[in-house]
Amino acid sequence: MKNPNMSEQQTFFSNLKCRECGRLYPKEAIHICEFDFGPLEAAYDYDLIAKHINREVIASRPQTMWRYRELLPIDGQPTVGAQVGFTPLVRADRLAKELGVEELYIKNDTVNYPTLSFKDRVVSVALSRACELGFKIVACASTGNLANSVAANAAAAGLTSYVLIPANLEKSKIVGSLVYGTQVIGIQGAYDQVNRLCSEIAGKYGWGFVNVNLRPYYAEGSKSMGFEIAEQLGWKLPRHTVIPMASGSLLTKIHKAYKEFIKVGILDEQPFSVHGAQASGCSPISEAKKKNSDIVKPVSKPDTIVKSLAIGTPADGYYAIRSMNETGGSADDCSDEEVIRGIRDLAEYAGIFAETAGGVTVACARKLIESGKIPRNESIVLCITGHGLKTQEAIHGHCGEPRVINPSLREFEALIANDAAVLEGSFKS
Ligand SMILES: *Cc1c(COP(=O)(O)O)cnc(C)c1O
Ligand SMILES: [Zn+2]
Predict the structure, then answer these.
(1) How far is CA 112 from CA 123, 159, 244, 250, in A?
(2) What is the per-residue pLDDT for 87?
(3) Alpha-carbon span 18 to 94, nearest angstrom
(4) What would the CATH number be for the domain defined by 13-83+119-219?
(5) 8 Å CB contact between 40 and 316
(6) For the chain, which end, N or C, has fewer CB atoms within 10 Å of the first or last residue's CB respectively?
(7) Peptide bond into 114 cis (omega under 30)
(8) What pTM did the predictor assign?
(9) Hey, which of 149, 192, 241, 250 would you mutate to test ligand 1's pocket, going by the most ligand atoms within 8 Å of its Cβ?
């Protein structure tokens, strides 16, 4: 991807930095501070970035997440996932009316390229960085979507990949990794056990685990969702953003993206709140937030149809709570039944078919609106993060069945005689 104003080969990302003590580290495949075990995060030279980019420069670039490349942690040009991102932000007036609010938008990552979830954003950064660091084998611990994205993007880039998942994931998510010829390893256990095993393998074999030793790079990819929301709203922030939480990383990074755009002068200072959404069968972050605590109590046996968000020990739970507290945001969680209703609401009122995590976002937004935590007259963006075709079994039998007849006009007319459109007379005979 060559573009004359792309700041070729110049890096704006200076170090890794401990989120706890602020110690600086070199830009290697490391993710934990040696002194206090704090997570490492990418640090940038914001003064330099402010001199290089502004609204016009960004707007002139190709419509992918890499139009914000100065604020992403790679040294050169992206080599993996060059076409990821810039998904639609759609105004959803019918859904707004159903939820009783004035101004509602869907950030629609169900159509993110190439694997139909927001995980392509984090993977394109992690694998581009993995190539810069010289890794030949890449891997991940996944609840499904990450595995799909690592498998696809590694295949396109010619990298060998191993993806480790809980063995009981949805069939479409398993097939959606196998098809790329990746090594899929199903673990008899919950995500936390998969993740622990991956830490051991990363230590012993030195592979590039996108969400373990490459996590500081991986996580930054989520910021692109926040940058896009701000740009697509006409260079302003929504007053409220509702975000599904698994490890809590996406929420913290959308928060970081909004702050960075203000810091480099692309946006004016303005109020905004980030709100978190989980499924009640695995809601360690929202439970803590609702109790006004920042101690996230692990859930040892997640029990929900929302497998993509089922992380019992969320790595960024504490920081997600801090982001919500800092911005006056709230969290909520919802039952599996409410998830299914959320999926159907989004489909019936906005024409978007989301996976279970999308149902969580819509259902929790409804609760936050009804409880007054999100005022009805302020702008809202719902982050919809994955496609419904990947979790069809979750709603199977909950949307009715087709009505079956013989190929006969008489049978057809008998069938539709009582349908609303016919009774209202919009039926031409
Ligand atoms: C991974 C994932 C999330 C959130 O992940 P975080 O770990 O909180 O960043 C949200 N939605 C879907 C569909 C996902 O796959
Ligand atoms: Zn530290």
Answers:
(1) 12, 21, 16, 15
(2) 98
(3) 44
(4) 3.40.50.1100
(5) no
(6) C
(7) yes
(8) 0.96
(9) 250
Is the separation of the CB atoms in 166 and 184 below 8 Å?
Answer: no
Q: Is the CB–ligand 1 distance for residue 249 below 6 Å?
A: yes
**CB-ligand 1 contact for 248 (6 Å cutoff):** yes
- For residue 107 and ligand 1, the question of a CB distance below 6 A is answered with no
At residue 3, the pLDDT reads: 45
357 lines ligand 1 (CB under 6 A): yes
CATH no. for 89-114+222-395:
3.40.50.1100
Angle between helices 249-263 and 223-232 (to 10 degrees): 50
Rounded Cα distance, 224 and 366, in Å:
26
For residue 276, what are the β-bridge partners? 243, 331
Q: Is 388 in the pocket of ligand 1 (CB under 6 A)?
A: no
Q: Considering every ligand atom, which ligand is closest to the CA of 34?
A: 2
Binned at pLDDT 50, 70 and 90, residue 30 comes out as very high
Out of 163, 309, 316, mutate this one to test ligand 1's pocket (max ligand atoms within 8 Å of CB): namely 309
57-72 pLDDT tens trace: 999 999 999 999 999 9
- Specify the amino acid at residue 417: A
CA-nearest residue, atom 14 of ligand 1: 308
Return the C-alpha torsion angle 83, 84, 86, 92, nearest 10: 130
What's the Cα-to-Cα distance from 180 to each of 136, 209, 387, rounded to whole Å?
Answer: 17, 18, 18
pLDDT in tens, 73-127: 999 999 999 999 999 999 999 999 999 999 999 999 999 999 999 999 999 999 9
User: At residue 429, does pLDDT exceed 70?
Assistant: no
Within the chain, which residue ranges are assigned CATH 3.40.50.1100? 13-83+119-219, 89-114+222-395
Tell which atom from ligand 1 comes closest to the C-alpha of 144: 15
13 forms beta bridges with 44
Q: Is the CB of 245 under 6 A from ligand 1?
A: yes
The burial of 14, by beta-carbon neighbours within 10 Å (0-12 exposed, 13-18 middle, 19 or more buried), is given as: middle
Instruction: Say yes or no: CB of residue 142 within 6 Å of ligand 1.
Output: no
Question: Ligand 1, closest atom to CA 311?
Answer: 7
